[in-house]
Amino acid sequence: MTETQVIEAIGTDDTGLRATLKWVDDRYVQYVDWVAGNQSFRLLESVEGTADDIWPPSPVLQQLTLESRTQKRQVALMVGMAGQSHWSVSIENEPEERKLTFDVACRIAEPSSTLGSQYRTNSKIKLLAEDRGLELAVAGRDCQVLLESTGRGESDLIQFKKDVVKIVATERLLQYPDTIRWKYSLLG
Fold first, then answer.
1. What number is the average pLDDT over the span 112-121?
2. What DSSP line would sit under the chain, residue for residue?
3. What is the pLDDT of residues 63-97, one digit of tens each?
4. Sheet holding 157-161: strands in order across?
5. What distance in Å separates the CA atoms of residue 116 and residue 137, rounded to the nearest whole number?
């Protein structure tokens, strides 16, 4: 197992985003930094649960593969499990746009009160129009977290309270087991 992997979306001006996936205890924790040359500023850190959490605040990610798509394009593929739920996450970079896209799915056997992804931040937060995203100010730069479509006609939610950003999946399932999916992008 590799302890740490990095996927970057750095533009030609040497600014952009870096996601560091680091093994901590029993899972990979996500750290997202805004990068300017050789400087980096912490933007987001995933809020993790414990091994005892059936419904953790963020996906439990226990296996990781990083693949190259082209010279600059990469995708991190991760899977994991909590309780009877199976998680999968892909993070794909688009360096020219300074963009990281997170596509998340959870196969669940029973109803959950809340599914989504949570991140801690020290950045100033501003909600964007129609609750479709938010803006984070870091080191004089405005970065965005935007909800993306999964093609199911969803209206997922993005929320924040104090220093925690929540991307909440709103899909309601009619039978179990089934899969819930949500998607979001970070732009730097």
1. 90
2. --SEEEEEEE-TTSEEEEEEEEEETTEEEEEEEEEETTEEEEEEEE----TT-SS-SS----EEEEEESSSS-EEEEEEEEETTEEEEEEEEEEGGGTEEEEEEEEEESS--S-EEEEEE--SEEEEPGGGSEEEEEETTEEEEEEEE--SS----EEEEETTEEEEEE----SSSSEEEEEEEEEE-
3. 999 999 888 899 999 999 998 899 999 999 999 99
4. 4-10, 15-24, 27-36, 39-46, 115-120, 164-169, 157-161
5. 23
Question: Is the Cβ–Cβ distance between 120 and 47 less than 8 Å?
Answer: yes
Place of tokens 């649960």: 49
Q: What are phi and psi of 62, to 5 degrees?
A: -115, -10
Contact present, 48 and 56 (Cβ < 8 Å): yes
Gyration radius (Cα) of the chain, Å: 16
CA 155 to chain centre: 17
Site of tokens 């870091």: 138
Q: Please say whether the beta carbons of 154 and 184 come within 8 A.
A: no
Give the pLDDT score at 95.
96
Res. 124: pLDDT tops 90: yes
Q: Token digits for 153? A: 């006609």
